[in-house]
Amino acid sequence: MKIREREISFYESGCNLKSIVQSAGTWTAKAECSGEGETWTKSIRMTVSGNTLVYSEGKEKEERYVRCR
Q: What is the C-alpha to C-alpha distance for residues 13 and 21, in angstroms, rounded to an integer?
């Protein structure tokens, strides 16, 4: 995953972040995504603690990432 100011890129897809709200180390955004010939929207929540990012898309998907140097 690569995160930019208004975009998240994954291996075979990417999302443009809309309506971003920040509160105490947590960012919540509506995202317009596309990949493999499809498009969709979703809500994303990202929380940062030290070098760890917790990325979630609702209750069913939560992943932890460690920052690369």
A: 23
pTM of the entire predicted model: 0.79
3-state secondary structure 10-33: CCCEEEEEEEEEEECCEEEEEEEE
Give the count of domains, the chain.
1
> Are 31 and 16 within 8 A, CB to CB?
yes
Distance CA 11, CA 28 (A): 22
3-state secondary structure of 6: coil
- Residue 8: give the domain boundaries: 2-66
Residue 54 pLDDT exceeds 80: yes
